[in-house]
Amino acid sequence: MVEFSEHFFTATDGLRTYFRLYLARGAREKIPVLCMHGLTRNSRDFEEIAPRIAAKGHNVIAVDIRGRGKSGYDTQYDNYNLSKYVEDVQGLLRRMGWSRIIAIGASMGGLMVMMLSAARPGLLAGAVLNDIGPVINPEGLARIQDYVGGSDSFASWADAADAVRAINGIAFPDETGTDFWLAFAHRICREKPDGDIVFDYDPNISRPVQNEDEASPDLWLLFASLRSTPLLLVRGALTDLLTMDCVREMSRRHGRMKLAQVADVGHAPLLTEPDAWGSISDFLDTLDHHTPKGQ
Fold this sequence. Notes:
There is one protein chain. The protein is α/β, with parallel strands linked by helices. It has one domain (5-139, 215-290): Alpha/Beta hydrolase fold, catalytic domain (Rossmann fold, 3-Layer(aba) Sandwich). The protein contains ten helices and eleven strands. An eight-stranded mixed sheet has the order 1-2-4-3-5-6-10-11, with helices on both faces. Strands 7-9-8 form a three-stranded antiparallel sheet. The protein is globular.
């Protein structure tokens, strides 16, 4: 059964952004949820968790950020940056007529949540950051810079799964079965018309990442915009990107941030793990309980 419909939004520069819409189920629609993926991922990252959220009564959008998935590739490589990504998302929200949302952002998507909050005060009724904070551990950043932008192709899905495991195995050390890695490969790779399998993103998305200091102290200014927003931080216990020192400082500055640690997982949790999903489900329930009717 198809649980979503497929749509495109055209930005002012003509580039098309693909998104999946999961319609709410239940007696009353609640605050809609926007899901934003990480650097090399796409909307398929949320194909398991989005239906669960919709089943709780929320409309859900999972977006392919430009240069990923079914969204257009940009010939102006400088447009592969957070500001442009957030501009696209704001246009999509205006098209949908969504003026109040809950945002879930994984890794790069979490940075987008912070920037979206700063750009649109009052937009966020709640935010979930998946394994990301204003200070990015240089060790994890170097690992990402080492693999992003690769143009490898694979002759079979088994070969793709092996490559995906080589990159992400550090984050999921307990996953030794082939089914897990084949499913992972199908989420982040695509098959070309000639039968070759490649990573499902424009290799040029790596250009800003290779040249930009993603750990800029200015990210604390963006994080400050979340001070009045209910916030849940999901952290993989084995992550090499988000240190506990950063987590403690985030908690101190925010004051009411909730933390969900996901055992035996690194960067970044899939959010379907019991520790992660249980916390997200409870967080959504709390937001719904404290939101006046009509919002």
